[in-house]
Write a structure and sequence with these properties.
By secondary structure, this protein is an alpha/beta fold. Helices cover about 35% and strands about 25% of the residues. It has a domain of about 170 residues: Dihydrodipicolinate Reductase, domain 2 (2-Layer Sandwich).
Length: about 450
């Protein structure tokens, strides 16, 4: 069931309704997954990489949803800011400053000069990077932090090296706070917490008694974008860098290493998108889902259109020497060379994005969620803005957290309300068959 809307709907297991406050009910009986979104206090937000596709989309969402915020965009040059304003005129409401993200001192000066309450780091790609200058500066200046990291070693390094420092400084920090990873993690966490009965009657976190709830067995993330999703050369760089990484998945509770862009699976993303082939990539939500949501088996796959792009990436992973795919300089040049051609194809195939999150429970039950949006860049911006809302409201605890950890989001329903703004379809906590493109009922049985 779908509804076109301008703001995100409130969603139940069987119906979609216009957004409105939700009556309190025990989660074991209730299926409503949303609460109405709420304002943020007057604060100052700095978006590093704010003139790029992801950063400018995030800034645009913050300007539209929270006009009381002060906003500063930071990047390497004023020319990039003028170009961003040309693409998105609303960004003229933001201030601009230059910054060198390789220098913690440069970032600290930026945060001190602006009096920032929150810094959002969107200056990727994060693959092969050990540069934590932005996170270090945020902790040193006691500024809230969010990044859109989609790299497993970078995210794990942030947790390992800065968790205790952020706690001691009283700094809330969320890593991998984009759409995937990001919103997808929260979708999975919400499904799993409902199954485990980890919410009380007011949707606050609780520890279930022994024997309560159902445990997850297998978590599958599946993602699709049309073309590059209109996200610019950075997503191309990310894709090429990921083509050089072995893939971590979990099977029977054990880590398994597989080749990149392998093990194709066909996934139905529902009406409007249909069935698409998706392939294994090394994404941080796999490790975090296993470690922090305690799911034994986890995998993440991605696919795109036109389908030849998937074959091109498959060949890249197998024919281009791994040493070159690990060379950020080579990959940057390779992406720049490919970008004009990819942009022309994007004009034909569009920028749609779809995510499907499937959780198989112990005992055979399945609960799933689906997210479909016409524009990846817009949905990315709203996803990151929804994480910012939590930090600015004081609903993220000090420390470094993945999106699915309870410390990251005090209110997952509020997050989902804002993150799904503009979706053509958003369903959560549904049986897998209910999300299919074509469902046929014959003789009392359902086939798909």
């Amino acid at each position: 069931m779908m509804m076109q809307h301008q703001t995100a709907p409130a969603v139940s297991a069987g119906n979609i309704h216009r957004a409105k406050p939700v009556a309190r009910a025990a989660p074991r009986r209730a299926v409503v997954v949303y609460a109405a979104t709420a304002p943020v206090p007057d604060k100052h937000v700095v978006v590093i990489g704010g003139t790029g596709r992801v950063g400018s989309s995030t800034a645009s969402a913050l300007i539209k949803e929270f006009p009381n915020l002060k906003l500063t965009l930071a990047s390497r040059s004023n020319e990039s800011f003028q170009a961003a304003v040309g693409r998105r005129p609303e960004l003229s409401k933001a201030a601009f400053q230059t910054v060198d993200i390789t220098s913690a001192e440069s970032v600290k000066a930026l945060l001190k000069n602006t009096g920032a309450d929150l810094v959002i780091h969107t200056a990727g790609p994060f693959q092969r990077s050990k540069n934590y200058a932005v996170l270090e500066a945020a902790i040193d200046t006691r500024t809230g932090y969010i990044d859109v990291c989609d790299d497993t070693p970078f995210a794990e390094g942030a947790k390992a090296s800065y968790l205790e420092r952020a706690k001691a400084a009283g700094v809330p920090a969320i890593v991998s706070g984009g759409i995937y990873p990001g919103t997808s993690n929260v979708m999975a966490a919400h499904i799993i917490s409902i199954a485990r009965q980890e919410y009380d009657a007011d949707w606050k976190y609780r520890t279930p008694a022994p024997g309560e709830g159902v445990e997850p067995k297998w978590l599958r993330y599946s993602y699709y974008t049309a073309g590059s999703g209109g996200a610019g050369p950075t997503i191309l760089e990310t894709s090429f860098l990921l083509a050089g990484e072995e893939v971590i998945v979990y099977k029977d509770g054990k880590e398994v290493i597989l080749p990149p862009i392998s093990n194709r699976r066909e996934v139905d993303f529902g009406p409007g998108i249909g069935r698409k082939g998706v392939y294994l990539y090394n994404l941080p939500e796999v490790v975090s889902g296993h470690k922090y949501m305690r799911v034994p088996d986890v995998s993440a796959r991605f696919g795109t259109d036109p389908f030849i792009w998937n074959w091109a990436m498959w060949l890249t992973a197998r024919l281009v020497p791994r040493s070159l795919l690990n060379d950020r300089g080579f990959v940057k040049r390779f992406a720049a060379l490919s970008d004009p051609f990819v942009r022309n194809v994007d004009k034909i195939v569009g920028e749609a994005v779809a995510m499907r999150v499937e959780v198989d429970m112990v005992g055979g039950k399945n609960s799933s969620g689906i997210f479909v949006h016409k524009y990846l860049s817009q949905s990315m911006g709203y996803s990151t803005a929804a994480f910012a809302q939590s930090v600015l409201q004081g609903k993220t605890k000090p420390g470094v957290w993945y999106p699915e950890e309870p410390e990251a989001l005090q209110d997952r329903r509020q997050f989902l309300q804002l993150a799904s703004t503009g979706c053509s379809r958003f369903d959560l906590n549904r049986s897998a068959w209910a999300l299919e493109s074509e469902i046929k009922q014959i003789g009392g049985l359902i086939y798909w």
